[in-house]
Amino acid sequence: MKIAFVASRTEEAQKALHRLAERYGNVPLQEAEVLVCLGGDGFMLETLHRILALNHALPVYGMNYGTVGFLMNPPADAGLTKRLAQAEPTRISPLFMQATTVGGEEKCGLGFNDVFLYRETRQSARIRIEVDGRVRMDELTCDGVLVATPAGSTAYNRSVHGPIIPLGSDLLSLTPISPFHPRHWRGALLPADAVVRFEVLDTDKRPTSAVAGPTEVRDVREVTVKIAEGKEVTLLFDPDHALSERIIAEQFAA
Q1: 73-120, pLDDT tens digit by residue?
Q2: Is residue 226 predicted with pLDDT exceeding 80?
Q3: Which of 50, 165, 169, 223 could lock onto 153 through a cystine, CB 3.0 to 4.6 A?
Q4: What is the Cα–Cα distance from 67 to 248, expressed in whole angstroms?
């Protein structure tokens, strides 16, 4: 099996890179059958964006040399080729964000976990929410609001008390961040093919940014979010460490 390795800049990941490359070889990305990513979840997300940019259908197997490692497998030097042969694939698609700034500039971005809007100053944001062309909330006063994929529902979405969504459920989570009004609104579950449009109200007094993966757009006027068509990456997981199982288990974690 032709393996390409990439590693984060941490000392532990770099040491693992040298050990594994010496043991299994390290072919150029263009020649590889699988890409092994050494690092944490943040580095994995960076790697997935790189794969998308290359328009390369290469499956990615992560080993955790970071902190949480939700998207990663346990690290081990021995038996890698066997683990890769037995790994189970999980296909995920990113969210596509199209943002228009107050000045009329349009910018786009992709986020595998989520796309979120957030206030830029001490003033709360005021946001109108539209789903599939229909206004669902005239005004949400909040720190921000996010749309999360099932794979990203255990990340920022969970920290702001959004629901954890099982893989394969064809749903997105629409979750407010510190809502002030309506104070008790907890968000909504939407079909995966939904198109969500956010309109920022009172942009002069309450400037708001939009973030999708590595892309941040400041002073937005409106933002549209939907699943990115025709873009998909494949993650590989050990049979006893599948992402779908980890998402279910996360719902029972203390």
Answers
A1: 999 999 999 999 999 999 999 999 999 999 999 999 999 999 999 999
A2: yes
A3: 165
A4: 20
For residue 41, indicate whether it is catalytic. yes
Candidates 212, 82, 235, 237; CA nearest to 149 is 212
- The CA distance from 57 to 149, in Å, is 20
Res. 132 pLDDT band, cuts 50 70 90: very high
**And the tokens for 59?**
């499956």
* Catalytic residue chosen out of the listed positions 41, 77, 193, 219: 41
Q: What per-residue confidence (pLDDT) applies to 223?
A: 98
